[in-house]
Inverse folding.
């Protein structure tokens, strides 16, 4: 099973290849290595919102990054930008998960400091060892 840190661009969507059209742009649909969670997609869209060309990933789909360029000569450079965005998004997402875990741990520590029977119960629960050691 691949994790969040394994998300990367692996190619273009075979069903929506880049085409030269009358419009002055070329749509690109970069395919990710696996489906990203909705929260990762939202983080990506936040990070990508500052880009020169509109870049988004549908959080329901989580597999394709939709963007565009003005000419074929820009595609290789734009791929590098998209790869950097994926790495930045993944780092931000992991940082937020770790911060949430630390915050949850702090809340449990606060609960164990409560007095009376509730405090005693909270301390017992906080000290439970769920490892499978005999």
């Amino acid at each position: 099973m691949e994790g969040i840190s394994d998300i990367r661009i692996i190619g273009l969507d075979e069903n929506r290849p880049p085409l030269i059209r009358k419009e002055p742009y070329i749509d690109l649909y970069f395919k990710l290595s696996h489906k990203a969670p909705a929260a990762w997609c939202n983080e990506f869209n936040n990070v990508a919102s500052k880009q020169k060309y509109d870049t988004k990933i549908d959080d329901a789909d989580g597999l394709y990054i939709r963007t565009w360029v003005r000419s074929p000569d820009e595609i290789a450079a734009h791929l590098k930008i998209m790869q950097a965005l994926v790495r930045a998004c993944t780092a931000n997402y992991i940082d937020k998960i770790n911060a949430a875990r630390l915050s949850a741990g702090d809340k449990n520590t606060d609960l164990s400091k409560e007095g009376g029977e509730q405090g005693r119960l909270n301390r017992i629960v906080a000290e439970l060892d769920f490892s499978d050691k005999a």
Notes: The mean pLDDT is 86. The two ends are 29 Å apart (CA to CA). DSSP finds three helices and four strands in the chain.
